[in-house]
TrEMBL record:
Residues 38-141 form the SnoaL-like domain. This is SgcJ/EcaC family oxidoreductase. It comes from the Bacteria. Coiled coil: none annotated. The lineage of its organism: Bacteria, Pseudomonadati, Pseudomonadota, Alphaproteobacteria, Hyphomicrobiales. The keyword Membrane does not apply. It comes from Nitratireductor mangrovi.
Length: 156
């Protein structure tokens, strides 16, 4: 808990942090293209198509499979995605926010998931997906960093 004398300053910062800001960095075209990449990846998960999931990431992308456990490189990501698919996940997404800065985009998306462990135990999970994408020279967007547990620090 912060010192009581710091509470007014913190409240002021929090107020500033939630004020709506009109930003030219929110580009409708980029937002649509970025969301299409995310939808392609999530549809591929539903279809159990690891190759298509991988095609939405740059070759050296980093994906957080569990908080504090990033993975990188095609073999590691393939194994990670195969382990996700093994629980037969059913995802629900609760909106998208995309912020673009040139050839970099930030994608935020709350999600929830149900699945089944190999022993039949029901698995439920959820969080805030935070993904950084980069526009490629050919105009496609690919994920560079993907942290589906972007809100884990807030849950402590």
């Amino acid at each position: 808990m912060p010192e009581p004398s710091l509470l007014p300053a913190l409240a002021g910062m929090l107020t500033l942090a939630v004020l709506p800001v009109a930003s030219p960095a929110l580009a409708a075209g980029a937002e649509t293209d970025v969301v299409k990449v995310i939808e392609r990846m999530t549809s591929a998960f539903a279809a159990k198509d690891v190759d298509t999931v991988l095609s939405t990431y740059e070759a050296n992308a980093v994906v957080v499979g569990e908080p504090g456990q990033p993975a990188s490189g095609t073999p590691a990501l393939r194994a990670l995605f195969e382990s996700f698919i093994a629980v037969d996940p059913h995802f629900t997404y609760h909106g998208h926010e995309v912020i673009e800065a040139g050839d970099i985009a930030l994608h935020l998306m709350p999600w929830s998931m149900t699945g089944k462990a190999p022993d039949g135990t029901v698995i439920e999970d959820g969080g805030l997906s935070v993904a950084v994408l980069r526009r490629q020279p050919d105009g496609r967007w690919l994920m560079v960093i993907d942290d589906p547990y972007g809100d884990h620090l807030m849950k402590r």
